[in-house]
Amino acid sequence: MAQDEFTFEAEVGKVLDIVIHSLYSNKEIFLRELVSNAADACDKLRYLALTEPGLMEAGSEFNIQLSTNKRDRTVTVADNGIGMNRDELIENLGTIARSGTTAFLESLSGDEKKDSALIGQFGVGFYASFSVAKKVEVLSRKAGEDKAWLWTSEGAGSFTLAEAEREGQGTSVIVHLAKGESEFLEEARIRNIIATYSDHVSIPIMIATKEGENQLNTGSAIWTRARGDITEEQYKEFYHHVGHAFDDPWLTLHNRAEGKIEYTNLLYIPSSKPFDMMNPDRKHRVKLYVKRVFITDDCEELMPAYLRFVRGIVDSEDLPLNVSREMLQHNAVVRRISTALVRRIFSELKKKAEKAPEEYAAFWADFGAVVKEGLYEDADNRERLLEIARFRSTNSDDLISLADYAARMKEGQEEIFFITGADIDQMRVSPQLEGFQSRGLEVLLLDDPVDEFWLPTVGLFEEKPFRSVTAGGIDFSKIKTDGDAGKDEDKDGPEKADAADVAKLILAFKEALGDAVRDVQTSDRLTDSAVCLISGDGDMDFHLERMLKRHGQITAPAAARVLEINPAHALIKKLTAMSGDLTKKDQISETAHLLLDQAYIAEGEPLGDAAGFAQRLSAALERGL
Ligand code: ADP
Ligand code: MG
Fold first, then answer.
1. Helix axes 232-243, 29-51, angle to 10 degrees
2. Which of 48-52, 119-123, 418-422 has the highest mean pLDDT?
3. Pocket of ligand 1, candidates 126, 242, 294: which has the most ligand atoms within 8 Å of its Cβ, to mutate?
């Protein structure tokens, strides 16, 4: 019969190469992957058949059949699920659509040992069969279609497709074992592998032996069993299957809700970042079942986008089995389940945060940035979210909560101070922080881009407004600080410059800088630095502005900033002393420009006139030498 030859997509070729050449240990997982795919295929058909009963063949129960043939040295995994037609075989087995695999390829090191460990971590699904095979055949007939197709590959760069015959719909994967892999022909070995990895599969897994058919798995959906009857291993294997994940779950939430709405949830929070978490589609990965029947993994309202790292299933007793996608939109039952699940997740997180702060900190490091999206997307849960949110701050190396912050606020301090930026270390040395540090005022260090978005929306925590340290108009005089550190410093240091002279200097600066600044004013937030920039009252915070610019959200030129000068700084004092001397006017003007540029550099911002800066700097250095 006619046979067409195809080359694998380059990425698939790479994966296969690694699987074949460096997957030394744990080869047995190939069986888990094939069974998992077979189970998915049955679930898909079961759902489609709810609305198109004709798709199911008369008298057939879903099952997965395992068989071995010692003479041909083959292991076969056959299912009567949805099947694949010619195009789907090419698409699903010849290209890589899965984001996890792409991430896998990106993290390859070229070192065989390391890379083979990575496979265990990522999983390569169907391709795992090539770790034991010299040839793999996939014989498939799609439900509702007449033609069957045979896909064949030896894993070396290409596969072939030919028309074929298959009794009944579904897929058979025939693995021709390579030399040295005979163990997988032994029934006992297969039983053991299924018991280890696939017991949770809700479709019966049968093995054909001389004595007849034998079921290898328990065969009931794992979430219908009592918690006490499920081992940690079984929970973990189900997580791997349902989440297409390969790490260990950090949290497992298995509950049955009875009462007004009835459902069971078996949800997992991963212990490491899933690779699709930052996908722009922001889709969650929780599967919806109705009375044990898989319905969809695409019910948007089941889980908010900011919890998209959660994996698992929800099985509802209240939705009708023939629920359509349209019916699921704005569905009251779905919404109530979702609300309850989100609460449950929050309360579990809160418990962890209190009882196991270190574990929680690791969770927060991976997922905090995503969870914080909820602060502006989910107004109903804002308080709960603020409670479990954790932050870095100037007072501590550990993550802190807002409650921790509030408890340490100084007498008279009414605001929660924060600074945003891209880099914690850089933020810690920001000139704007100096005055806060010297007064012992704690400042939150916020380094996630999402912080710029929730802060303006949330505005308050327990009625205390959030306030950027780079904003204008902060009044320190009302705050009672540690022995009034700010003032002490003035006493220890040399005397402050005369106020009238400072005013003169400010005028000179304003004249020199013109439109380049919005204003020039004395600062009480500086101790060590001569100058810093702040936003004008009512202007957008300039970190936010910079971020929006970087993402092309705004294109207007940046608003001019306010330049604050530190009258206690030696340089400013010298300038102040010169400010009455008309012959020094040019020098003051040049220094004003230099200081403004320096303030921009401290912010990590590009200079408007870098050449002018270089000239002025050389001139000043020359004079100094
Ligand atoms: P994943 O299961 O994570 O999607 P795999 O590499 O295991 O990745 O499988 C790739 C795709 O091939 C599946 O998503 C599915 O569309 C298809 N597939 C694999 N095995 C079967 C099968 N037995 N029946 C139907 N489709 C299958
Ligand atoms: Mg798979």
1. 60
2. 418-422
3. 126
Residue 446 lies in a domain: no
Ligand with an atom nearest the CA of residue 92 = 1
SS (H, E, C) 4-27: EEEECCHHHHHHHHHHHHHCCCCC
Using a pLDDT cut of 70, give the percent of the chain over it. 93
pLDDT score of 70 more than 80: yes
pTM of the model: 0.79
Whether 163 and 208 map to the same domain: the answer is yes
Determine the distance separating the centroid of ligand 1 and the alpha carbon of 171, expressed in angstroms: 10
Q: Are strands 263-270 and 311-316 parallel, antiparallel or unpaired?
A: antiparallel
State which amino acid sits at residue 49.
Answer: A
Domain range for 584: 494-624
DSSP3 helix / strand / coil % (the chain, rounded to 5):
45, 20, 35
In tens, the pLDDT along 518-553 reads 999 999 889 999 999 998 877 777 777 777 777 777
User: Could you identify the atom of ligand 1 that is nearest to the CA of residue 82?
Assistant: 25
At residue 489, the pLDDT reads: 46
**How far, in Å, CA of 552 to CA of 593, rounded?**
29
Which ligand is in closest contact with the Cα of 45? Answer: 1
Residue nearest to atom 23 of ligand 1 (CA): 38
CA of 33 to the centre of ligand 2 (A): 5
Same domain, 52 and 167: yes
> Is 478 within a domain?
no
Mean pLDDT in residue range 372-396: 95
